[in-house]
Structure formats: C-alpha cells, structure tokens
Automatic annotation (TrEMBL):
UniProt keyword terms in alphabetical order: Cobalamin biosynthesis, Methyltransferase, S-adenosyl-L-methionine, Transferase
Catalytic activity, as annotated: Co-precorrin-5B + S-adenosyl-L-methionine = Co-precorrin-6A + S-adenosyl-L-homocysteine
NCBIfam families: cbiD, PRK00075.1-1
Gene Ontology molecular-function annotations: cobalt-precorrin-5B C1-methyltransferase activity
Protein name (database record): Cobalt-precorrin-5B C(1)-methyltransferase
UniProt cross-references to SUPFAM superfamilies, sorted A to Z: CbiD-like (SSF111342)
Source organism of the structure: Salinisphaera japonica YTM-1
Similarity remark: Belongs to the CbiD family.
Region of interest called Disordered, as start-end residue ranges on this chain: 1-24
Documented EC number(s): 2.1.1.195
Length: 383
C-alpha cells in the first residue's frame, strides 16, 4: 500500500485488507505511480533529445535506493516535437487498484528552463484547498514531481540540453479506477493521483491508509468544515449521513484505524467529532484498543460481561461464551441491562483522552443493518 496516500485506493471496502498468512517479509515489493511516471518521463526525454529508445530506465529513489524499470511502449507525436512513453505500474504483491495500469508521460521541449506539469487523461486535477498542491494543479504529488524534475535534469545534463520540459502525465482507464478511491471526496476530479513518497510499494502497509485519513482531515479543515464523522464502514457512513446531513468531505473513512483519527485530531482539532461504528469494533475501542482489525485481537467478552454489573452469574457466564458481540448484547438486553449504552460511554471515555477539551465528541453505535443501538456525548456510565 505504499502508493496510496492521497486517494485511499481501497475506498470500496473501507477496511485494511488482511495480509496473507505466513511471513509478510517474503511478499514482493512494487513501485509507486510516481516512480513509474518518472521512468516514463526519462525514456521520453532520451527519445526526444537524442533519438535513443531505452528499454529500461535506471531510477535513483529516496532513501538511497536504486532500481531499473522497464519501458512498455513509446511513440513520437506532433511531428517529432513530443514523445510519449508508457510504463506498466507494478505494485508487487500489494492489492493496489492501479496494479497493471499503463502510466504514460509525454515530454516536449520548452525554451525556458524548468518543468511544467500537465494532467493527461486519467490523472485528476486539484479543486479543493487542503491538499499538498494548489487548486488547479494536476494531481501529481510533491515527491513524484521532485523525482521527475531531478531525473530530467540528469538526462538534460547528460545530453547537453539547456531548455526546459512540458510534462504531461496520464493513466489509461484512470478515470474509471478513480471511482474506487477517495479522490472525488478530497476534491481531486477527473482521475487518479500520481503518488509515492519513497517510490516503493510495500505490501499491506498501514502507513499509506493512515496517510489518506490524515489527508481527508486536512481537506475538511482547510475548507472550514466544523463537524467530522469518522466511520468504520459503509453502513456507519450511511448512518452518519442520515443523522447529521454532512457534506462528503466531512465523512472520514476511518476503517480499523481509530487511533489514526484521534491522534491526528489532537494535533489538528475540529469543533465537533462523531465516531460512528459497529458494536463489535467499538467494543474493542472501548477497552482502549486503537487498531480495530480482527488480526489485532478479538472481542473481550470478559470485559463485556464485566459491564453487566447487576446481572446474575448465569447471565454474565452466558455473555462470556457468546459467539459474537451482538449475541452478548442480546443476552444483556434480555436481562434488561443497557450494555450498548455502557459500551458507548466507555468509547467516549477512551476517545476523549486523545482529543482537546474544545472538541465536542459524540459516539454512535450501530448494528449490522445500521440501526442505532446507543449514542453517548459524555462518559458517564448509565445505570
């Protein structure tokens, strides 16, 4: 997932995908769209300036890493004034929506020095404040821009060229692929983003998904959105919309990463935060766990049973051996115990520890169909 910050390539599920069993270190790393575009840009420049058709391009990546990327195709356009090169994005063993996509770059000469970037078909344009790029710019993130500029400068020096370049970056079928991402919600319209901070895609990395959460918060704050709703899934997002009628940019696709939201909002606060999620995931958050993924651990049924302080021993024992958190909830409800309300209050207590006192916090617990089980705007346990 090393290529995901900025457009959240896994919007369809809103969950961090589970890594395959076994040693994750054996999984094959890949290359970001930024690295892929850099290779295509260099190959275009060599054909344009020296009529040299490269079969592969040597890249110098951040963190002192080097690699060679293959050229897939190339053509000379506009009577020889422009060259387009395509390279295939290889995400390694990461389940990246852009894996296998053709990233293409057209390069043309400019009399003035420097590099001017343009969005080709399949690459989006920034339309909202809060991103790392100004409104109106093609969605080619800062590190890929830097990589392309530096590699073109190397090529120009090697070929004794003293002018500048117009660089147009596109992705075949990028507009369709972008529909699976958060780009439109972030204000990146028309296609995908060219991404990557290291040039390397590391399979199943959490850092990339967390970065996309932070970027969504940045966009909301830059556009003066006072109320955010952080949701664990598509159902909780629908409930948040029904309850609060928020604009799309106010909905934060938290997935399993509650800690990523809470810790970031501690440093970048908003006026109001609603946490909306399923009873099972929030039962984990209520115990202080900030990563809600199942591989980090299951439901603490002993803890749930401990909330049923007034229940008899048989009821608490039945809760401890329940198959699911909702089954434990049903047992508690049958005994007249407000378990959902107590879990919501416990979630509020945990979340409030990470937020500034100026942020109004509310918790909304739902069941699988999306019915609201409980709401809490303070941490006092109901009787």
């Amino acid at each position: 997932m090393g290529d995901h910050p900025g457009d959240g390539r896994r919007r369809a599920s809103m969950k961090q995908p589970a890594a395959p069993t076994g040693d994750i270190k054996r999984l094959r790393t890949g290359w970001t769209t930024g690295a892929t575009a850099t290779a295509a840009a260099v190959a275009s420049a060599y054909r344009l300036l020296a009529n040299e058709a490269l079969s592969q391009v040597h890249l110098w990546l951040p963190k002192n890493r080097e690699t060679d990327l293959a050229v897939h195709d190339q053509r000379v356009c506009d009577d020889g004034t422009t060259v387009e090169t395509g390279c295939i994005k290889d995400a390694g063993d990461d389940p990246d929506a852009t894996h296998g996509a053709r990233v293409w770059v057209r390069v043309a000469r400019r009399n003035a020095p420097g590099v001017i970037f343009h969005a080709g078909a399949g690459v989006g344009t920034v339309t909202r404040d809060g991103l790392a790029l100004p409104v109106g710019e093609p969605a080619i993130n800062p590190m890929p821009r830097r990589m392309i500029v530096e590699h073109l400068a190397r090529a120009a020096t090697h070929l004794d060229y003293h002018g500048g370049f117009d660089v147009t970056v596109g992705i075949d079928d990028g507009a369709r692929i972008a529909e699976k991402t958060m780009n439109a919600r972030l204000g990146i319209l028309g296609g995908l983003s060219i991404l990557g901070t290291t040039g390397v895609v590391r399979p199943f990395s959490c850092a990339a998904y967390i970065a996309s959460i932070h970027q969504a918060i940045d966009v909301a704050r830059a556009n003066a959105v006072p109320h955010l709703a952080a949701c664990t899934g598509a159902t909780s997002e629908r409930v948040a919309q029904e309850l609060f009628a928020l604009p799309d940019m106010a909905l934060i696709e938290m997935g399993d990463f509650a800690g990523a939201v809470l810790k970031y909002l501690r440093r970048h606060p908003v006026e109001r935060l609603s946490l909306v999620g399923g009873f099972g995931k929030f039962s984990k958050l209520a115990t202080g766990r900030l990563d809600l993924h199942s591989r980090r651990g299951g439901i603490d049924f002993d803890w749930l049973a401990g909330l049923a302080t007034e229940a008899d021993t048989a009821t608490r024992d039945a809760m401890r051996v329940a198959n699911t958190s909702l089954a434990a909830l049903a047992i508690a409800r049958h005994a007249g115990i407000p378990l959902a309300e107590r879990v919501a209050a416990a979630v509020w207590q945990v979340a409030a520890r990470y937020l500034p006192a100026t942020t109004a916090l509310e918790i909304v617990l739902i069941d699988k169909p999306g019915n609201v089980l409980a709401r809490a705007s303070r941490g006092e346990m109901p009787g």
